[in-house]
């Protein structure tokens, strides 16, 4: 139990695989909260990155690379936390997560593909391409939410 609660404070600093192991020791409700926090972190990093790609903040290569890295870790953490038996309160996930696992995996794979592309163009410093890639990524969020998250 101690391990689980310590873990909750540091979710962004561990790999998805290590996380999945520790998540399995948690109450299902806690697992839901962990993945919701991870999605919030994902949204927050994407929002911050948006300021750079729109030129509202001066492009800083180290900073934007760090943001895409955070997005990568947050998304891995969120996806790893869809453990069986965790579609419980206070989840906003739909039953389709368990009823259509292949389609759900496909939506994750599509997101990962868009995120890799975004990471690539961001690291090349191409701000205009990054704007386009971030738009594509955001569409992959919405497309998953359409079937798998309650409106
Ligand atoms: C593969 C599917 C999928 C993708 C891709 C995805 N999400 Fe989600 N998202 C979900 C599901 C399912 C939930 C509901 C989780 C829960 O409540 O158990 C969710 C929840 C959220 C939440 C609510 C968290 C809270 O406060 O409860 C936010 C914010 C969010 N996602 C943002 C994003 C953003 C931003 C992206 C893209 C950068 C994204 N998501 C990509 C499936 C996805």
From TrEMBL:
InterPro entries: Cyt_c/b562 (IPR010980), Cyt_c_II (IPR002321), Cyt_c_prime (IPR012127). Pfam families: Cytochrom_C_2. Keywords: Electron transport, Heme, Iron, Metal-binding, Signal, Transport. Gene3D superfamilies: Cytochrome c/b562. Coiled coil: none annotated. Residues 1-20 form the signal peptide. This is C-type cytochrome. It comes from Balneatrix alpica.
């Amino acid at each position: 139990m101690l391990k689980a609660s310590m873990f909750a404070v540091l979710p962004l600093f561990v790999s998805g695989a290590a996380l999945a192991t520790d998540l399995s020791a948690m109450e299902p409700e806690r697992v839901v909260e962990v993945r919701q926090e991870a999605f919030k972190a994902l949204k927050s990093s994407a929002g911050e990155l948006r300021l750079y790609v729109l030129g509202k903040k001066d492009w800083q290569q180290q900073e934007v690379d760090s943001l895409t890295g955070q997005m990568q870790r947050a998304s891995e953490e969120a996806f790893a936390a869809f453990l069986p038996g965790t579609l419980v309160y206070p989840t906003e996930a739909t039953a389709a997560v368990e009823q259509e696992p292949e389609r759900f995996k496909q939506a994750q794979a599509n997101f990962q593909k868009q995120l890799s592309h975004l990471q690539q163009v961001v690291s090349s410093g191409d701000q205009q391409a990054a704007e386009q890639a971030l738009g594509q990524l955001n569409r992959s969020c919405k497309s998953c939410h359409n079937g798998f998250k309650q409106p």
